[in-house]
Amino acid sequence: MDNIKEKLKCGQVTFGTWQMIGNTAISEILCQCGFDWVTIDLEHTGIAINEALELIRVIALSGKVPAVRVSANDSVIIKRVLDSGARIIIVPMVMNRTDAQKAADAVYYPPIGKRGVGLSRAQGYGFGFEEYKSEFPNEAVVVAQIEHIEAIHHLEEILGVPGIDATMIGPYDLSGSLGHPGDFSQKDFKDALAAYEEISSRMGKPMGYHIVSPTREDVEEHIKKGYQFVALGFDSYFLGTKCREVLQDVKG
Q1: Whole-number Å distance between alpha carbons of 190 and 181
Q2: Residue 208 — φ and ψ, nearest 5°?
Q3: Which of 151, 150, 159, 161 has its CA nearest to residue 207?
Q4: Diameter over CA atoms, the chain
Q5: 44 assigned to active site
Q6: pTM for the structure as a whole
């Protein structure tokens, strides 16, 4: 399993994707495609915690890094997916330093954070706790989602929180906070992105972006701007796109 934290520190680009369908076969298929990490989305799906455990297990056993976008900045939810074996935690709607600190505290054990200790799958069901405790700080990745204009206004303080390894733009919600959800052509959205990129670059923090409908040109453009944590599409997008292409070809 790759160490995504180390890759981000070294300036490398990593590619992942989003899993919205709570089925282990989907996890296997996405891992076999070669993504570095696969994000299980608990925020905008009906995937339950017990289902997430099975998806995390399959992703990890496939040799890829399991990531979870939690449903909220909630220490109990974060603790449960970490104890199941997640290595990347993506926290939605981080608005300010307080939110960022809360997320970091929920991920790390004392004295770094405030995470409670459990003996579950991640800790070898109790027999590998010491090894997990030693290795985890060097492997865990905490990603704060920047998806509201308020977060852009407080970005420097968010990036200044120890334990926040990277941030990630949520383009749809960010544009929505400016009054035009899904319209990325507006000047205020472009200005917000430019501010995000300038501040992140100046402070040396890895940037992330979810490119929902990826093209080679779009991906290359983001990489040139310095984005390292890049999510490409999502499972149902890939399924729906390929089905439409085949049907259009056959019927055409």
Answers
A1: 13
A2: -130, 155
A3: 159
A4: 63
A5: yes
A6: 0.96
